[in-house]
Amino acid sequence: MPDPTTSPAVTAAEDRLRSRGLRATRPRAVVLQVLDDAAATAEHLPVAQVVTRARAALPAVSTQAVYDCLDALTRAGLARRIEPAGHPARYEARVGDNHHHLVCRECGRTVDVDCTVGPSPCLAPSDTAGFAVDEAEVVFWGRCPDCRAAQAGPGSLRTTADQRKNPREEAR
After folding, report:
1. What is the pTM of this model?
2. pLDDT per residue over 48-76, tens digit each?
3. How far apart are the C-alpha atoms of 91 and 93, rounded to whole Å?
């Protein structure tokens, strides 16, 4: 069985770490790869999920080591930490662009939303107080379709995606 910590994806992660001036340790490369894999499905992972997924490739990695890796990746601009109020911090690999987030008040599901008003910072404060503003971080709050459906009861909330799956049912 091949060693998952020496896969081409992990090797590419090691190269990215070095390009940002970081030592390319196995834990850092594996954690970065976990975030990259999550980005493919637009997931925003809390630390507990990062730990679980990292341990699939590197069983001996400690929770503290994962926290240290996430801190180093965030400082190096390879990861982004999102801290929605009342929810655990989440991490993502989508960095270097200007996007915001939708967060479900019920389950904490977090979704990327592209900035709607042009280049960074895309929003301007009424008074900068002398700051050179280069970024605006916006969190939109609401309830995701799954939580809305659960609250309303079975069958009472149909999303557009559900309607596309079976348009004939809508005619009944």
Report:
1. 0.74
2. 999 999 999 999 999 999 999 999 999 99
3. 7
